[in-house]
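To whoever is covering the structure queue this week,

Two jobs came back overnight. Logging them here so there's a record in the thread.

Job A:
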Amino acid sequence: MGRSSVRAAAVVTLAALFTGTATASFGSVPEEVNTPTPINAEDGQYIVLLKDAPLATYEGGTSGIQRTKPDKGTQLDANSTNSKKYLAHLKKQQADVAAEAGVTPQQSYGVTVNGFSAALTAKQVAELSADKGVLGVFPDEIYHPTAAVPSTEFLGLGSNTTGSGGIWDAVGGVSEAGKGVVVGVIDTGIAPENPSFAGDQLKKKGAQGVPYTENGDTIVFDKADGGQFRGPITIAQSWDKRHYNTKLIGAQYFSAGAAASGFDFSYDFLSPRDGDGHGSHTASTAAGNFGVDASVEGIGFGKISGVAPAAKVAAYKACYVGPDDLVTTDDICAGSDLIAAIDKAVADGVDVINYSIGGGAASTVLSADDYAFLGAAAAGVFVAVSAGNDGPGASTADHGSPWYTTVAASTIPTYEGTVKLPNGFQAAGASVTVPFGKELTGPVVYAGDIAKAGAATNEAALCFLGTLDPAKAAGKTVICDRGTNARVEKSQEVKAAGGTAMILVNVTAGSLDNDFHSVPTVHIDAQYRAALLDYVRTAGAGATATLVGDNVTGKVTPTPQIAGFSSRGPILADGRDVIKPDVSAPGVAILAATHNGPKEKPTFGFKSGTSMSSPQVAGLGALYLGEEPLASPAKIKSALMTTAYNLVDANGQQTADTFAQGAGHVDPKRYFNPGLVYENGIVDWAGYLEGALGQDYFDGVDPIDPSDLNIASIGIGALAGTQTVTRTVTATTAGTYTASVNVPGVDAVVEPATLELKVGESKSFTVTFTTAGASLEQWATGFLTWTGAGNTVRSPIAVYPVSADAPPTAAGTGAEGDLDITVTPGFTGQLPLTVLGLAKADVLIEGNEKTGEANGGTTNVLVQVPKGIDVAKFALNSSVDTSGTDLDLTVYHVVSPTDLRYYARWQSATASADEAVQITEPAEGWYVISANVYAFTAPFTWTATSALVGPGGVGALTADPSTLAAQQGQAATYNLSWSGLDKGSYLGVVRYGDSQVRTVVSVDVP
């Protein structure tokens, strides 16, 4: 974000964060209008978050309760007497808020967030949203789990047979890898019988470092960081105390939100037991035992291990499976249950959380779970999250906040097969169902050409159940397109139609998956599809294909490549100044534990997705904490990012797509000694949020430009010519470090370019970016690298050059006048200036301290905003601005004057008596302006005004010259003049070229 960004409520899309309008067609008088409700507000389940700090960030101030926020280098102690006292205080506060609204809390949160879940009516949603003490009201959304050479060997951790030959050796062996650390997994539960989670029987307190039971209902573990994990023993369906052991020391379930939605639990276990396999898979990937024999469908695949095999596991089940195993649309992860799981995991004392759950492309950096993870990170917990499986399109990545590590998925060497054609065509792909070294040859057909009578051709091409003609499929290898239905369902249909084998082919570039199919199958990528189908259709009835149970092409499949499904950045939310994803890790064809019933044998399976890559990073976090128990989440994330390396493409050439790989592929061989780290914490995150969102969320915190957040990447969402960002590094290895930076099309200068540091010493530097040939309104990417002391410390960079750096506001006075405005062009050439307005501010309400008294101090007025408005500004102006006098302003975009459900909501609710909401390019329609007299100490008067700036206007607003002869980086000044204005306040806008840069001009005529 450029430094000239307006810090105003207007730039905040609060509709994306939180879940009551008078039309004033210029000069209207107040009329009674009810409080609007959100457009999507229905009677249903919601999460209500309050503004007062949760346990993890409480700084003190409540009488008799001391600060609970942990000091730097320590974790939160949620079990202290003081903590319990503050949690009780929060619970009473929540009860009071709920009682005033007439609702009953279902789940209470107090550790990472302060709030509760409840069933609300649409009216209660509106009332609570308007409460000044409420941070936001979030619909209880439904989320879903984000769905060779072993990945641990590929990461360089060591042999899965002996445990030696890698990083595990460096930490003292597999028995020390993650020792003393607890990994919390929020997912679909866990399979306690799986050998990945085997351990000794729990006893009363015995040997040091061994988990034990207390009072028969609690499991206690003395951790490496000096703190304790304390988790309750759960008794539930197919689950009792016998399922815990010295490895699996925590298992709980959270289902109130799912139950409130009417979910049918009959297809799952209402307990910590995994009914899906996703949770067991992620848990064993992160911290499963070492050297576990894994077989699938009777085929042995050797031994597997978690990344941190000595770490303990605590499972927090908040996701439940529906009746269809082949889809996730009937599964449920209720948002309120997820928040409860996060809250409890931190309260119990986990050190790491894995969260392989998503809800689509991030539209904000402060959703309900983002806020919960803010508290978790503030409590000292390292959090790894999945980037999502909606790639390869741009801006599809989930989880956009900077306090956790967002993980993309990449490939590793896997089990392969080959498709061979008589014309010399050869394509290697994924396969575990063609016998190794064997060849299967037979006639081949394309599914789209053999549709059953009455079946849609496009569905037959995808091998939907019941779509293939058995007369044309029998005895043949069938080519099925990937997409829509489950991959294994396709081979099921081929078998049902009499086919003997399948070639599964991607339609667009994507992952290659080792599924256990109903017939021998090789899964190949999209680059081979055209040639394959061309041969089949040309050869006709004589077409044959051979499937080989190995890669016999003579070409080694390059790895690691970014998975086609892996979601990409940039994150188009709240300034675009944080690069996501952060890193990539193995996430394709990962073999790990899956689920089983209480009397069934343990199972294993191959799964692909960023759900599989995220626990790799969670495990690396645990591995790091095993060596440095007091390391901050930011330090671990920085070490992972700055030691990462580039991925490769299908030809084996290095790629450096920042929005696909983030900083690059994680490299455990280097991350223990990164050389330099970028530290950041709750104060930094709070300043970032206030700068990015333009809201005063935190007391005593100054906003920062989001680009200045001290993270191990540099993002500038709007580079107007030149911008300087600041970073501070702390040395883990003493030495002299020299900077180099490369962003094609952008000049970047580092000052100082050399840093000499002792271990633990911190120094700051700046990087000044200037557009130098890069295309405007397009991203330019590159890297900053510090080299020294045997280390290379690399940070990804992404900047978005725009046309000009202009002041966001300018002000003048008088019926006739002018002012000079200076801008800095971001390019050399002609820069047209477009002038809009002036528009007179119409008085909507003339009030005093008693206005709205019968409605809790609130007065609502409707305003109609016509099409083509560039800027709308709504303001409250008080006759006094003394302490104790407080007005609040809320603006809602509603459906109509008679339908007060709202699409979007903006609020300016500081401790001041003057408030303003400015909306850029507001949607045409009706808006409710809601003014509230929140507090006063003496009589006073105030006004509410509305100014709508569009084409035309009054006052002959003129820019001279109307086009600037722009020279990049050189200040240029134009004169803005007006005349013939009557008494009042006016608003205008100057736009610069085709960019979104604008200066909002106010003129006051006394």
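Job B:
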Amino acid sequence: MIDEAVLLIGLAVLTIPAGLIWLAVSHLRLRREVKMLRTAVDALGHPPAPKPFAPVATAENVVPLTQTADAPSTSSDDAPLPTPTRPPVWDRPHKDIPPKSAREPVVFKRERLDALLTWLRENWFYAVAALSLALSGIFLVQYGIETGLLSPAARVASALGFGLVLIGAGEWIRRRFGDSEASSTAYLPSVLSGAGLVTLMGGILSARMLYDMIDPGTALFALFSVAIGAMILGWFHGALLAAIGVIGGIAAPFLVGGSSDRPEWLFVYFALMVGLGLAIDTVKRWAWVSVLALVCGTVAGGLLWFDETGSASLSAAYAGFAVVLVILVVLIPARGVMPDHQGACALEALYGSVTRSKTSRWPIFPARLSGVMSLTCCAILFVTAMDSSGNFWLNLCLVSGLTALFTVWARPAPAIQDHALAPALTLLALLGSWDTTHLVLQDLSAGLAAQDGQTETRLPMDITWALLAAIVPSVLAAWHSLKTERFATFWAAGAVLLAPLAGLALELTWQPITSIGAWPWAFHALALAALMTLFATQFAKADAFDKTRTSLAVISALACLAFAVGVVLFDAALTLALAATVLAATLLDRRFNLPLMGVYISAGIIAIGYRLVIDPGLDWAINAPIFQMLAAYGGTTAALVAGYFVIAPMDRPRSKVFLESAALSVGGMTLSLTLFHVLDAVAGRGDHSLHWEFGLHATIFIGLVLAQVLRMELGGKMRWMRMSLATIYALFALGTLAFGVSVVSPLFGHILVDQSVAGLPLLNTLIPAYLIPALALGFGALRLSPARKKLRIGFATLSIAMAAYWAVLTIRHFWRGSDQMPMSFGVTQPELYSYTVALLLTGAALFYQALARQSDRLRQAGVVVIGLAVAKVFLIDISGLQGLTRVFSFLLLGLSLAGLAWLNRWVQLRTDDPDKDPDDPAPVPAPNTDPEIDRLD
């Protein structure tokens, strides 16, 4: 008896809000009627005066107050003046303010936030009222559970009935008194109807989640029906109904509580709620309703997924839910199966903002909204792919499909042309990240291990399917590029990059060679090369003059071909294959006039340099057999030289500089490494051979410095990187040279490391140690442009210093041999005289070059060298000379100096007047014939 009484009291309590609402509405209606009656009475007591000079015509539909509607009307002359009355509010039909025409979407600014806060401050009781009414319906169900008074069906029915009552009350008030801001019942119909909708959704969710009265399909159908009704109501009510319906509907599952063995169906419910908000906003164009629906739906889905993190089925549902949201946010605002977003895309606007273009505009609001949702979806797909291998494959298919979908959609909707970029990058991230692929690779390894020992094994198709996920969007991107003119080049770039980059990601992370073998993986790369070739032929047919798209496809095909060759060949063959593709790029450029081939030539040369210097690098070249080294370095040099001569007649300055500098540096490497192998075979390597090893390494680094300096002349954004590389190589070169002339020099072997000079007196290991680096430095000084005067002087100075050092050590080795090279063995007189003779011969050679080149600087350099020889004789040599040796030494020195003095004078005269013969006698002055001078004499 007590429970029934409590139930009656509870029901009575639930009727209190409805009663209060009814009283408020009745009171407002009575106030309006009294106000209108007073207005009518005042109008009867003070009728307006008739207008002079204008007869008053009685309207046909005006009935005088003294006459009923059925009585015949009097003539116009006898008719009294009409009374300016208007029918009372209860007799005239209510007209809502018509919705404004579709306008530009609201952009969220500070002013809009301030307006929202102001509205909440002034009308917060409406929001609280809606919350209270919605909670009352949900608490009705929970009360029935706690007390056990009603059956589950009765509890659900009471909640549904209460929700229908609230919706009916709200709709009745809207029809009778309006819901506009101008009416006194503003927001009240939205509050009641919104609370009713939330109560209906809560009742249906309770029937499914708490009592399991209905299956998920029935629950979704019922919720879909409620969502359709809410959408229709949202078109007629104000924005408050949309906000209440979206927020309350999405929060209802969390308020109802309970549990479900299959919570995945709630993602469908959340998608319905998001679609509800978007559908309302596609008519009303409030913009913020769409944002509210997407934010609430995404957060609710994330909370549901986070509550059971690690569940593969829930992660799959969450991933599908994210993709569905992207599709809804694109299609519902467009009101069709194909989007029609016009205007600029986000990348265009960003580029215009960076370049400060006055004509650039930001994308329309639906495009911005779909772009943000696309980025959010990609993040969800990446995170949920980590839960299981099945989730990885599902998300890979979803992200591939999303990329393909945006590629197709971008044709009629240019404002979303950049939306395909995010899923394409996500696809590459899925394939290249260890976090997303380690479970897949474990399953792949387990499958291969299970086939061990079997006579017949099946080739795993995982690699093929993964690559196919990138090929499908690539093909559609090429199709899009052929069918459109706007951004055709960018779509072509995406078509030729996505699939090869996916193959590179597989190579780095999956290592397909270990699972399917080298040749099957090479065939995959060859298939990509064939696809890129097909793209190139189609682009060539479509482009008559601009061959940019064709060049991109050809570059991609060459890269795939080089990759395929590299998979099955050894290190030397891979480097040689890269050089062959560079040569092929020059031939294609020469044949078809493809300027963009220069990009591949530059990239290919950089890749070649990386392989020759770093990986496998110089260590491999030193230890590998000489024929493999010659194939890699010599073949590459030949390919680069051939490419340079192929492209020489064309206007390709960048390609020429890259090819020339690479040919010089790789040629120097080839020569140095060849000498390295020869000397290793003849003299062997060890601590005693460090002087020539350091010299050859220095030569290689000098060539690399020269290559980067030559490329610096191209300028551009890469100039600072080339300068940095040149500085690094220069430090290595200077370091090896410094060690070569000090620590590992044969002159100081008794102090540091003993060195053994192998070879004949004039043909020995001192040449690769010091003379070859000197020649490389001298070549660099001659090759550099005159504008780099300081750098040329530096190269020339180091070259002369290294050549002089080589000459000194060669003379000492001639007289003392390898065993007595260290300075601890002293210096003999013949060795000292040889240095003097060498200086004199050097001075004479400089004089000759000064004459041949008409250079006064060379003549001055010769004078300096001769001066050094004289100083050496008088300061050093004279102390060791005695007897006739001293006499004849100074005699020869005097004759030599006299001859050199004459040669210096002769060269000087030839330099001042090239047309004059220095051996001609001086002209005899003419006799004086001036009589005045004779008189003075």
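Note for Job B: Residues 1-25, 51-107, 932-937 have pLDDT under 50 and may be disordered.

Please reply-all if you pick these up so we don't duplicate work.
Q.
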